[in-house]
Specification:
By secondary structure, the protein is an alpha+beta fold. The chain has eight helices and twelve strands. It folds into two domains: 104 residues, no CATH class; 143 residues, Gcn5-related N-acetyltransferase (GNAT) (Aminopeptidase, 3-Layer(aba) Sandwich), CATH 3.40.630.
């Protein structure tokens, strides 16, 4: 893919995906200057346009205001940054305000029609869409096992999204022997040319067998059927090479900066 097309995808990403998906449930979206923030999830979330248009001391004050807002609530907060954000010293100023960088991920974009295919699963593995709370709890338990930390919040988050806009989220679980071995979800936003590929974590003993690739192909097919031309994902270092081989293209990187009380 040429640099011109990459630049075009990045420009469309900046124009359409700098806000946040309506959270549903008790969570809500607020604005503070150029920023959009989410209140009422397991931790706060802040995102902004590519160029905040705020500099120096004013930027320090804007950052401190978000930190202090969530501190008053006794909550942690993630500020989502991208490598091409402006001003260029944003991340330095976040660090100075006590935010800590977590692992960076690669933002990849692909054409849904090119990626769409029937999912090819290993023998003994089935794939189904789920909405029931019991299934969402099973997914959260599986994620907690994979990551070695408490992911119980995920069940509530997915349930809220399904309740708020069931037509805009598809939660899939791959199962073997009655056990969840992988889960992933596809998130749409009204009026947006991109569908988000989220999740995809697979339990260790089932990795390397094509389940993740099958999840991507199936979700791309759903996006294409809905007329959404692109899918995008924030990919870990493990997932990015797989997705690149499938035909997605890196447009930037994203790093969460987190402040915790």
């Amino acid at each position: 893919m040429t640099n011109v097309l990459i630049d075009g995808l990045r420009t469309a990403y900046d124009a359409q995906l700098r806000g946040v998906t309506p959270p549903g449930g008790a969570a809500r979206i607020e604005k503070d200057g150029p920023l959009t923030r989410v209140v009422g999830r397991h931790r706060g979330f802040v995102s902004g346009p590519r160029d905040l248009g705020v500099y120096g001391t004013d930027l320090d004050l804007l950052i401190a205001r978000q930190r202090d807002f969530y501190a008053a609530r006794g909550e942690a907060v993630e500020w989502k940054t991208r490598a091409h954000d402006l001003p260029a010293d944003l991340t330095d100023r976040l660090t100075g305000a006590g935010f800590v960088a977590e692992d960076s991920e690669t933002v990849l974009i692909g054409e849904s029609a090119d990626l769409a295919a029937d999912p090819v699963l290993p023998d003994g593995v089935t794939l189904r869409r789920v909405t029931a709370e019991s299934d969402l709890r099973r997914i959260a338990v599986m994620e907690s096992r994979i990551w070695g930390e408490d992911w119980n919040w995920l069940a509530d988050d997915l349930a809220a999204r399904i309740e708020n806009a069931p037509e805009n989220i598809v939660v899939l679980v791959a199962e073997a022997g009655g056990e969840a071995v992988c889960a992933a979800w596809l998130v749409f936003q009204d009026g947006v040319d991109f569908a988000g590929l989220w999740g995809g974590s697979t339990v260790e003993e089932w990795r390397g067998r094509g389940i993740y690739r099958a999840m991507v192909a199936h979700r791309a097919r759903l996006a294409a059927a809905r007329g959404v031309p692109y899918v995008y994902v924030d990919a870990s270092a493990d997932s990015a090479p797989i997705l690149t081989r499938l035909g997605l293209h890196a447009v930037t990187t994203t790093t969460p900066y987190v402040w915790s009380p």
